[in-house]
């Protein structure tokens, strides 16, 4: 009497195929690095110039009027809210965007001049340029000949 | 409607069919809200950094594909010292369960969010059926 190596194909479903599929699915999940888990909002990048610093943040869907930027010493604070879409009698198919209030403090690498801050909002990207305080800048010291 | 093409993994760079991308930029899956009203299907997708001319929307049969190319974000003379988000392009495809009146699709881009209003085709709209007393 001959026996097939695996009896499962007779059942119309092979658990080993299913296991392999699950395994590759797990690998895919883990390799993506869980970037969707809670992050600080908004995500920011910091760019450093000679005597200035630029802070950029991704704030899609936030109205410029809903953001407050404040500065205390060398700490820049971004506060605001993202409002949900008001739609009546809508049935939701997918809701991935987050709503609510946010607050984030950023420590700058030096003290900045509060009178020389420029903020721009472009396509959902907030860009704040801050200049180093004049008194705080590194001073070059001349060496006098004897 | 909830059907989605798994063309791009979130925050994972992809290569195009033509092989290597000419510019090594990552492609992101934009987070999206989708809701349905009586007359429309509305899609909101977050694509920060994408300007109006960088958006590409196609509807082929029932597959809606949105692509966004973010503008270069280089600060000349500046050095990036801290990094939480990367620059890249956005791409996502959805399969719509309704027939769409493709001549009346409206798309707007505001504050980095793409707003798509897809009107349902007349035939797809739910009709109220009156019951006659027998």
In terms of topology, how is this protein built?
The complex is a heterodimer of chains A (146) and B (134).
Chain A: H1 15-31, E1 44-48, E2 52-58, E3 67-72, E4 75-82, E5 91-95, E6 100-107, E7 112-122, E8 125-132
Antiparallel strand pairs in A: 1-2, 2-8, 3-4, 4-6, 7-8
Chain B: E1 4-5, E2 27-28, E3 32-36, E4 40-46, E5 50-60, E6 63-70, E7 79-83, E8 89-95, E9 106-110, E10 113-119
Parallel strand pairs in B: 2-8
Antiparallel strand pairs in B: 1-8, 3-4, 4-10, 5-6, 6-8, 9-10
What letter string, H or E per element, gives the SSE order of chain B? EEEEEEEEEE
Strand order of the largest sheet of chain A: 1-2-8-7
Overall 3D shape of chain B: elongated
CATH architecture of chain B: Sandwich
Can you put this structure into words, describing what you see?
The complex is a heterodimer of chains A (146) and B (134). Chain A is mainly beta and 146 residues long. Chain A has a domain at 44-84 and 99-136: Sandwich (Immunoglobulin-like). Helices cover 12% and strands 40% of the residues of chain A. In chain A, strands 1-2-8-7 form a 4-stranded antiparallel sheet, with no helix packed on it. In chain A, strand 3 and strand 4 form a beta hairpin. The model of chain A is unreliable at 33-37 (pLDDT under 50). By secondary structure, chain B is mostly beta strands. Chain B has one domain (4-16, 24-122): Immunoglobulin-like (Sandwich), CATH 2.60.40. In chain B, 0% of the residues lie in helices and 44% in strands. Chain B is built from no helices and 10 strands. In chain B, strands 1, 2, 5, 6 and 8 form a 5-stranded mixed sheet that branches. In chain B, strands 3-4-10-9 form a 4-stranded antiparallel sheet, with no helix packed on it. Chain B is elongated. Chain B starts with a strand and ends in a 15-residue tail after the last strand. In chain B, 27% of the residues are buried. Mean pLDDT of chain B is 80; it is low at 6-18. Chain A binds chain B through residues 28, 31-33, 35-36, 39-40, 43-50, 54, 56, 58-64, 85, 87, 89-97, 109, 121, 123-125, and chain B through 1-2, 9-12, 31-38, 41-42, 44, 46-51, 70-71, 73, 75, 77-85, 109, 111-113. Strand 5 of chain A pairs antiparallel with strand 3 of chain B, so a sheet runs across the interface.
């Amino acid at each position: 009497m001959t026996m097939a190596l695996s009896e499962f194909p007779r059942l119309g479903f092979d658990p080993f195929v299913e296991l392999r599929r699950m395994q590759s699915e797990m690998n895919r999940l883990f390799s993506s690095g869980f970037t969707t888990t809670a992050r600080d909002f908004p995500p920011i990048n910091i760019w450093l110039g000679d005597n200035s610093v630029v802070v950029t943040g991704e704030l899609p869907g936030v109205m410029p009027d809903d953001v407050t930027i404040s500065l205390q010493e060398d700490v820049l604070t971004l506060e605001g809210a993202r409002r949900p879409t008001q739609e009546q009698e809508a049935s939701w198919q997918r809701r991935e965007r987050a709503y609510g209030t946010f607050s984030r403090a950023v420590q700058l690498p030096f003290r900045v001049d509060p009178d020389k801050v420029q903020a721009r909002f472009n396509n959902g990207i907030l860009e704040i340029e801050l200049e180093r305080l004049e008194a705080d800048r590194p001073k070059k010291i001349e060496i006098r000949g004897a | 409607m909830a059907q989605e093409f798994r063309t791009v993994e979130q925050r994972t760079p992809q290569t195009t069919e033509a092989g290597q991308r000419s510019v090594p930029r990552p492609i992101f899956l934009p987070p999206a809200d989708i809701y349905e009203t009586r007359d429309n299907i509305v899609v909101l997708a977050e694509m920060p950094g994408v300007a109006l001319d960088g958006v590409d929307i196609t509807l082929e049969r029932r597959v809606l594909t949105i692509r966004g190319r973010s503008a270069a974000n280089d600060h000349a003379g500046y050095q990036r010292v801290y990094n939480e988000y990367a620059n890249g392009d956005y791409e996502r495809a959805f399969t719509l369960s309704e027939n769409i009146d493709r001549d009346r699709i409206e798309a707007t881009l505001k504050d980095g969010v793409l707003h798509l209003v897809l009107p349902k085709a007349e035939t797809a709209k739910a009709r109220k059926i009156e019951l006659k007393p027998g």
